[in-house]
Design brief:
Helix 1 runs antiparallel to helix 2 and helix 2 crosses helix 3. By secondary structure, this protein is α/β, with parallel strands linked by helices. The strands form four sheets. Strands 1, 4, 5, 6, 7, 8, 10 and 12 form an eight-stranded mixed sheet that branches. It has a three-stranded parallel sheet with strand order 9-11-13. A two-stranded antiparallel sheet has the order 2-3. 33% of the residues lie in helices and 30% in strands. Strand 2 and strand 3 form a beta hairpin.
């Protein structure tokens, strides 16, 4: 079963409280989401393997450690996931960025991929799939399945807030994908929104309704 990592760092929790606030405008919302994503990326990459290298300092030769994972990609689920990409890239500027769009067919209720643009070597990369909300888990599970169909094997999911229902669904469908969130909220309401949550992340990010 995958691990659920709730990141309780005080800075993350402080900024998440501001993100939740309905009075926070789109500009501040975007800035806060990017900042929280950067802080969370620190924890998401904690277990990346290291290798030793020799570095010439002004004084002598030092044996140092560098990340041995050379290929990393950040994959936002459109559209709200876009708000988290910049924060991750501030820590890992050499990461490639892919995009995946998923919607649920109103009749069949099945997830449909409507856009997918990924690095050609996706199967060789460590992937960080990002989306602020893990609500029902349907879109996230579908996005992971679409990535696996294209050869991806190393996937981590990073979000801001999850519902227990979404975590359970994602663990059932993809028990190999670890989950990183800043909070696990109470429940979903009848419309599939996380309660207390933060509302529609995409609308708040881009100032739409």
């Amino acid at each position: 079963m995958s691990k659920v990592n709730v990141i309780n760092h005080p800075l993350i929790q402080h900024k998440l409280s501001m993100i939740r606030d309905l009075h926070t405008g789109a500009k501040e919302f975007r800035e806060l989401m990017e900042e929280v994503a950067m802080l969370m990326a620190y924890e998401v990459t904690r277990n990346f393997p290291l290798e030793e290298v020799e570095v010439e300092t002004p004084m002598a030769t030092a044996v140092c450690q560098v990340i041995s994972v050379k290929k990393i990609a950040v994959i936002p689920i459109l559209r709200a996931g876009l708000g988290m990409v910049g924060g991750v890239l501030r820590l890992i500027p050499t990461a490639k960025v892919g995009h995946i769009g998923v919607y649920r067919d109103p009749e069949s209720l099945q997830p449909i991929e409507y856009y997918c643009k990924l690095p050609t070597d996706i199967g060789e990369r460590e992937l960080i799939l990002v989306d602020p909300m893990l609500a029902t888990g349907g879109s996230t599970a579908a996005a992971i399945q679409f990535l696996k169909q294209r050869g991806a094997t190393q996937i981590r999911f990073m979000g801001l807030i999850a519902a227990p229902e979404g975590i359970e669904f994602l663990q059932e469908r993809h028990p190999d994908v670890d989950i990183y969130v800043a909070a696990v909220d109470d429940r979903l309401n009848s419309h599939g929104y996380i309660v207390p949550g933060l509302g529609d992340a995409g609308d708040r990010l881009f100032g739409t309704k």
